[in-house]
Write a structure and sequence with these properties.
Distance between the termini: 23 Å
Strand content: 35-45%
Number of strands: 18
Largest sheet: 5 strands, antiparallel
């Protein structure tokens, strides 16, 4: 059993929990034996809480009053994270920096002909890795704190409301649940808010051969400044 950082790099997004993942289903943790400090301060510790994620049993969420620009060190000693079968076999120290809010942007999706049941709206990269997602209902979905990038946008519909996206079952002649891919990519720019209108009856197809996925982009003339708010924890849609 091993534990690793699950934060997509050494920068922690504003108003986010620090995430630790395990290769085993986590049954118990002992955060009272962990040490959390500001980097360079060996005398004082920083108050924090840690719990196993309610939506992902392979993940631990660490909460604290992270200060933008500060560097932190979290030490997780061996045998302080347990599964039913094993404990983490070695100590780990996680070094990370609380990122500044001005390095992030926001996207609001306004859906026409939106699903009548719950659905996942996902932002994925060119390798189809899900970077952000929300499980929601209705015709408007907002992502508040996003890394500047170009994203492919997908919707997976939970037609039967079982909180899983069910794939096709050819043996029993059952179709997969509904899914959609937006015909354009969504671009996030630092400190700017963009609104994206999407008619799910639009049959245009995304041209993946033209994807560039820039790391940083300049804000458009019609974009507007915004106030950012936190983003909630997310569910994993597929079985």
């Amino acid at each position: 059993m091993d534990v690793n950082s699950d934060n997509n790099g050494e920068l922690l997004a504003p108003k986010s929990d620090f995430k630790i993942s395990s290769n085993y289903y986590i049954d118990k943790i002992s955060p009272d034996k962990w040490t959390f400090r500001v980097a360079g301060d060996s005398l004082n510790t920083v108050p924090f809480t840690a719990k196993i994620s309610e939506t992902n049993p392979y993940q631990i969420l660490v909460k604290a009053d992270f200060i933008a620009g500060k560097k932190y060190q979290l030490t997780v000693p061996k045998e302080t994270v347990s599964s039913f079968y094993a404990k983490n076999y070695q100590s780990k120290r996680f070094d990370f920096t609380a990122d500044k809010i001005e390095n992030y942007g926001s996207l609001t999706f306004i859906l026409k002909n939106a699903p009548t049941t719950s659905y996942w709206l996902q932002l994925v990269d060119s390798s189809d890795k899900v970077l952000y997602q929300k499980y929601t209902k209705g015709s408007e979905v907002k992502f508040d704190i996003l890394k500047p990038a170009e994203y492919i946008v997908k919707i997976l519909v939970d037609n039967n409301e079982n909180k899983f996206w069910d794939e096709a079952d050819f043996q029993n002649n059952i179709f997969a649940e509904d899914s959609y891919i937006f015909y354009q990519t969504a671009v996030v720019r630092p400190l700017w808010e963009s609104n994206v209108e999407w008619d799910l009856n639009d049959t245009r197809v995304l041209d993946t051969s033209k994807l560039s996925f820039p790391k940083n982009t300049e804000p458009p003339k019609d974009a507007k400044k915004m106030d950012l708010k936190s983003n909630d924890a997310l569910l994993t849609p597929t079985r």
